[in-house]
Fold this sequence. Notes:
By secondary structure, this protein is α+β, with helices and mostly antiparallel strands. The chain is built from 7 helices and 5 strands, in the order H-H-H-H-E-E-E-E-E-H-H-H. The chain has 2 domains: 170 residues, 2-Layer Sandwich (Beta-Lactamase), CATH 3.30.450; 58 residues.
Amino acid sequence: MTSAVPRKKPIKNLRRWLINMSIQRKITLIIVAVTLIAVALTTASFMVYDNIVAKKQLAVRMTTLADMIGDNCLAALTFMDPDDAERTLKSLDADANIEEAAVWDAQNNLFALYQRNKGARVPILGLDGHYFTKTHLTVTRTLQFSGGNVGRIMIRSNLQHLVSRQRQYSAIAFLLAMLSLGIATLLAAKYQRIISNPIVSLAEVARGVTESRDYSVRAHRLGNDEVGLLIESFNNMLSEIQRRDSDLLPRAGRPPGTRR
């Protein structure tokens, strides 16, 4: 009976892949990843903010429209003329996003109804104010005349224009992210050499010293940063080894600068 071979965890495989990656690629990957995350967070924040502002603006516009249509229905409510109220509601046909509107009298009886899609269920009278669902905005207002309540009006609009707007922004954001990613990759590939070249050069010198045992070789120091200090320490170490070899090798009868 054979024992099951445990699967390697993806995180361990990813960590091993990152560890074995060359330093040039690591630096490039870090720069590109940071750029992509920054662009994604900025874009997401903008889209969330824009969606909030757009919903507030839509609520204000629909509330103003409900008040205006409601004022035009006051005469119909006063003289009990539902046909006139329905003609007024019919003017909402001009806004393709408005799906239905209704007017109730003072006793909360349905007085006039407009529905873009005929045959839909009769709307239920709700509380004054506005509220959003995932797909619609509903605005309800009380109609007043001479200080008294004569009825109420409700307008319901879909959010298709907001959805279309978000899709457009998402497409633009995706293109900007790809453009930023491309620019970041090009810049990272070019400027990562400032960091990686001294380290790669030091690694090559260390490999050469290991193979040739020639401790007179020195790595070239380019700056005074941490990499420069590392190179200086490495050169000092080679100098110390070379000095000790110079002291020890003549005693062993071997020419200086060589090792077995």
